[in-house]
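Our preliminary data section would be incomplete without showing what the modeling component actually yields. Below, a chain of 337 amino acids is followed by its predicted structure, encoded as tokens that our downstream tools consume directly.
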Amino acid sequence: MVTMKKIAELCGVSRGTVDRVLHGRGRVNADTAANIRRVAKELGYEPNPAAKALAARKHQPRVCVILPSEGNAFFDDVIRGLRTAADEYKIYGLSMELLTMKGYDPERMLTLLDKAADADAVLIDPIDDARIRERIDAFVAAGKFVVTVNGDLPDSRRHCYVGSDYENGGVTACAILDAFTHGHAVVGVVLGSRSISGHRARLEGFEQRMKKSPGLSIAVVVENDDDEFTSFERTKAMLQTHPDITALFLIAGGVYGACRAVKEFAPERRPTVIAFDSVPSTVEMMKEGIVQAILYQHPYRQGHRAMELAFDKLVNGREPYKEMYILNHEIRLLENV
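Predicted structure:
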């Protein structure tokens, strides 16, 4: 078994120096630290689990989670994944604080970020706003571990992203709609918010795939702020104003509200509907024949994986081995939902 004493002998340093480097405590010369990490990696060094637990309990690592989850059922499984993982790591003294908000108000998210100032790690589904990007960059500069979950800010200094490929989601949704409509449809798009980079990317992917199908066109794009009531009102108004719409692409939340609006119209006027996330209300709409296909994003796995990465960094001292942890979309129809 490889020990810190053995690593210290090979590197010509004290055991205390090795301990500080491998557990992120105190300051060590950068070249010396790099050499210690290299030797430890080459030897396959793994800290003793009991020792790790003891050290972590003394430090009490704290993870703060910030999500725009209020009123959006998609996040129920994300939160369940986060909490399940956090419970698994309680033995190491790790704790999780969940801070939530409704909609996409950057001022509100900045307030929540203020509350996360003392956390060791921040897991966040961020709004695309320069001030939020700056706050994330400041957190990283201060030594905090930052993971974006479900939504990303790729031009920030966050350590990694866990979620789906939004552009691919849009491409895939368009391909599904193309198949359902035999390449001929006038599409109404219901977007959560243009302030969310992922929502924009889905629309861009959809429009990109449309170039292969000249019989598809977009009549109008409306935003619903992932709110069910707003989604109902704006979808209904859209369908009244554009009676030529034959398909709906529901990019994010507010699916149930949009489907309620569709049900206001006679069956022959109801469009083909492609949506995301198999939350109970969306499955209900699928069983009623309102939604034809769903793209599933594995929300539980998103939450669980993000917390795993925080644990690995805070307790094991392991950096993420890649920048993007992408969970592939799963196409769900009535037959397999």
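Residues 56-163+300-326 form a domain with the Rossmann fold fold (CATH 3.40.50.2300). The chain has three domains: 4-46, 56-163+300-326, 166-296. Preliminary results of this kind motivate Aim 1 of the renewal.
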